[in-house]
Write a structure and sequence with these properties.
- Helix 2 runs antiparallel to helix 3 (84-102).
- The chain is an all-alpha fold.
- It has helices at 19-50, 56-81, 84-102, 107-135, 141-169, 172-193, 211-226, 235-256, 273-287, 290-302, 307-328, 336-360, 363-381, 384-391, 397-425, 438-446, 449-462.
Length: 464
């Protein structure tokens, strides 16, 4: 029987050889997933105590900036040092960021902690993609993604409950202390049990780090995000144009490199498979970031939902994603193209549905569309990394696999800035929680639809 048509059994990775490294990778991804859901649930309480409603989008945007910086370098670092060193740095950064947020007395200090959490959480997520390709047999990669989805789904169930418990019984600060302790445990496990392995030959190892490129990328994202703080007729367009220029400079500088290039060749060329993949993931991520940022605030403000209920509505996307990925991950490789294509088309139902459901309700309808969006992404995401392996040259595998979470994080960061601009323009920047009105909720989610549709166009080239 052809290997591509064989069913991949769980016993191929759930055994004495692969079990513990797989658990450690899943543990790191779970911290990243829990962080996003718990913080989204705790956000109203954080705003009540510290203020800074106009900075709400930055709680995600700054986190993703840190994620972008580390994930953009993750392929490069793993080429040079293997997977253990970047995982170790990620867990330490994540823990330190949690401690800073736990003792913060202003939203600005929380954002500093979120930046470091982004370094750590993004690193754990990005390196998990590379580690999955390095530490486990290629044919089992979809199963590894399936198990990662189980832990992501567990975070979906636990995140809102933990966030609401911290807020209602103790304090939102306890949540950050708990994450810091978890990061310490993860650090010990990485030191003891992760092999220092790499995939690329040593002669491809780079000699230097792309400091200029990272500075250009970071400045670009910060300039775009800064435009979301206050909308003025002159400042916002200037900041956005400056941010786009800096990101373009990053892409141009990166394209000139050969040995230590961070992204695939021609990352925005829609006529090339990896270019269409990067564009697709960027657009789809940017188009779906509005619900994690503003969902809890809108549902508690407009629909009088409890923090716990609102948190679980947001988690429905992660739950649908995880459940579906787990169920389909054993399907053969010959179906990859069709599953990626149909998954992304299913997800658009949720994105379009938000435009009506979030401002109008009922809350159950918002949860349904969130679940549908997650199901679509779950179907597609289980097979995107495996498909990328097949279309990549051997020397590009680590860069290309690391480019997936990098594009996702850039999409989340730019998307957070974009919806922040839209939200503040529609009245959210007035400084009161009840400023999130029916009009604001409608405009925020309507603005995301064209971005997603452009991502669907990129899919056609990717799966061709």
């Amino acid at each position: 029987m052809n290997e591509q048509s064989e069913y991949i059994r769980w016993s191929e990775i759930l055994n004495r050889r692969f079990g513990l490294p797989l658990f450690i990778i899943c543990f790191g991804v779970t911290l990243h997933a829990l962080d996003e859901l718990v913080v989204a649930t705790m956000l109203p309480a954080m705003v009540d105590e510290l203020g800074g409603l106009d900075l709400v989008s930055w709680t995600v945007g700054v986190y993703e900036v840190g994620t972008v910086i580390f994930s953009a370098m993750s392929g490069l670092i793993t080429v040079r040092y293997g997977v253990r060193f970047p995982m170790l740095c990620s867990s330490i950064c994540f823990g330190l960021g949690c401690l800073i947020s736990a003792v913060a007395q202003s939203m600005e200090v929380v954002l500093l902690g979120r930046l470091l959490q982004g370094f750590g959480g993004g690193g754990l997520l990005a390196v998990s993609f590379v580690a999955s390709a390095v530490l486990f047999p290629e044919r089992t990669l979809a199963r590894v993604m399936g198990l990662l989805s189980v832990f992501w789904g567990a975070a979906g169930f636990l995140g809102p409950m933990l966030g609401s418990l911290f807020v209602e019984l103790y304090s939102w600060r306890i949540g950050f202390w708990g994450f810091g302790l978890s990061a310490l445990v993860l650090t010990v496990l990485i030191v003891l049990k992760i092999e220092d392995r790499r995939m690329t030959a040593t002669e491809t190892t780079p000699d230097s780090y792309p400091v200029k490129r990272l500075l250009a990328l970071t400045l670009g994202i910060f300039l775009i995000a800064a435009a979301s703080i206050k909308m003025t007729s002159l400042a916002a367009p200037v900041f956005i144009a400056g941010g786009i220029f800096c990101v373009a400079m990053f892409l141009a500088l990166d394209a000139r490199e050969a040995k230590n290039r961070m992204l695939p060749l021609q990352p925005l060329n829609l006529m090339e498979p990896m270019g269409s993949a990067v564009t697709m993931i960027f657009c789809l991520s940017a188009a779906t970031v509005a619900l994690p940022i503003y969902g809890v605030l809108i549902l508690t403000s407009i629909h009088d939902a409890s923090v716990l209920v609102a948190g679980y509505v947001i988690a429905c996307s992660a739950i649908g994603w995880s459940l579906t990925t787990f169920l389909v991950s054993g399907l053969p490789e010959r179906l990859d193209r069709a599953l990626i294509n149909w998954g992304m088309y299913i997800a658009v139902i949720g994105v379009v549905g938000y435009v009506y459901a979030v401002p109008n309700g009922p809350v159950a309808l918002v949860a349904l569309f969130a679940f549908i969006e997650g199901v679509g992404f779950g179907i597609a995401w289980a097979f995107i990394p495996r498909f990328v392996l097949h279309i990549s040259e051997p020397e590009e595998i680590e860069r290309n696999t690391a480019a997936l979470p990098t594009a996702q994080s850039i999409g989340y960061a730019v998307g957070a800035a974009f919806v922040g601009i839209v939200a503040n323009w529609s009245g959210v920047a007035d400084g009161q929680a009840d400023a999130i009105s029916y009009f604001s909720a409608t405009i925020i989610f309507l603005a995301c639809v064209p971005v997603y549709l452009f991502g669907l166009f990129a899919i056609r080239v990717f799966v061709r």
